[in-house]
Each structure stands twice: as structure tokens, then as C-alpha cells.
Amino acid sequence: MSAAGIAIAREGAIASLRFDRPQRRNALTAEMYATLAQALDDAGRDAAVRVVLFEGSAEAFTAGNDIEDFARRPPEGEEAPVFRFLQAVAAARKPLVAAVEGVAVGIGTTLLLHCDLVYAGDKARFSMPFTRLGLVPEFASSYLLPLAAGYHRAAEMLLLGEPFDAAQALEAGIVTRVVASGGARDAALDAARRLAALPAEPVRLTKELLKAAHADAIRAQLARESAQFRRLLHGPAAREALAAFLEKRPADFSRCADTL
């Protein structure tokens, strides 16, 4: 089944959620976030589903938010589809597995910090360009990335917002394993099948125990980031970044006043 750029499929006990908007490198719209949030809720309620698999295409896992859609319908409150999706992923009790090929931009990278197993093709490229868009990180990445990568590596990735490759993603703890280009889905599906073959309750409880020490901090950081993200969306730097994107020119932040 495909809805709003998300292809939803089942293979036994595995629910696959595939970003399926190739004409825009799988960039995510509000409708896609709503579909993803509902699909995660459905998978959580379905006892027959043991594992959720996120995947994209050979060219792109996802290019992040669709900037034009984001400009037309910026997320204004916690009930916005993007924030419902963030909450659904953070609260997921069943294992989340990801297969990454091509580009993984913004939420395409920060999503991986919440997944339990992540397999990336060796030509995959990652970036979290939030400061370049006049924004702050999202998805509790400002908490989870330093936890996985250490402060200085996380600071370089989040402050500069520059692209990095699969080897660097592995070193930073963003991915579980790097495989030959084109092999990420096979590796992720193999892991998902092995997880699905295990008894469900021990797997669920093990995930819960692994995440328990940081659960409250993640929820708190999601709220902090969301508040700052929504505030900055209406700021001069974000407006300049959006205008530059639409006009296909470099952004010039030299006249964007600091509010400190």
C-alpha cells in the first residue's frame, strides 16, 4: 500500500515503511509525516508486527523536509504531523531497523539515532544542516548525538552542519554497520527477520531496558528543541535560508541580527 509518498508493506512480522517520493529524493511532507505517525501507531497495536523497518531508495533514504511544503505549512504546535511522528518514534516499544542508501539529510539522519539497528551502504551520505537553515537540531539529536559520538564530534556535525560519509557515521555511532553499496536493505531485512524470530516480550523488554536510563531526558530534550525550532522558524535567519533555497542562491546571514 502506498499513501502520501509512504509505501507500507508487510513481510511476515516485519512492517516496512518506505519513503517513496523519488521525484523529490524522498523529501518529507506534512502528509507523509501523518502517514508515518499513523503507521507506527498501527504497528505498535498489531501483535503480529514484531519489527518496523524504515527504508528509502538507492538514491536517497530521505532528503529531509520538503522545504516548500514546510514553508507553506510550518509546524506550529505539538499536534503538527512532524511532531506526532517524532513522538511516535521516540515512544516506539518494538525494534526499529533502518536501511540507508544515498542521502540522509536532516531528519533522515536524526531518525537513525532512535533506531535500534541501522545498516548503511558505503556510498551513503549524511548531514544535519540545521544551523545552515537558521534552525536548531530536532528529534533530541542534541542529546543523543553527543551520547553516541562524544561532545566534540557531535558539535562538529551539528554546529557546522556539513555532510559526512558512512565511515564517519559508523565512527559516530549513528549506524550499526556499513555494507557494500546496494546491500543495506538486505542487511537490514536479515536483521529484522532474526529479531522477528525471537520471542517478542524479551526483545521488547531488552529495548526498554537499553533506553530506560535516557527516556526522560530524551522527552525533555524533544520539548526543548521543538520550542526553539518553532520560534526560529519565524526568525530572520530561517527566512533568509528559505528565500535562498527558493531563489537557488547562497544564503547570506550577515544582516540577520542575533537576538541574544
Report on the structure:
The protein has 260 residues and is an alpha/beta fold. The protein has a domain at 2-182: 2-enoyl-CoA Hydratase, Chain A, domain 1. The chain contains eleven helices and eleven strands. It has a seven-stranded mixed β-sheet with strand order 1-2-3-4-6-8-11, sandwiched between helices. The protein has a four-stranded mixed β-sheet with strand order 5-7-9-10. β3, α1 (30-45) and β4 (51-55) form a beta-alpha-beta unit. The chain is globular and about 60 Å long. 45% of the residues are buried.
Number of helices: 11
**CATH overall fold name of the domain at 2-182:** 2-enoyl-CoA Hydratase, Chain A, domain 1
> Could you tell me how far the N terminus lies from the C terminus, measured between alpha carbons in angstroms?
48 Å
Mean pLDDT across every amino acid position: 94
Give the ordered list of helices and strands. Answer: EEEHEEHHEEHEEHHEHEHHHH
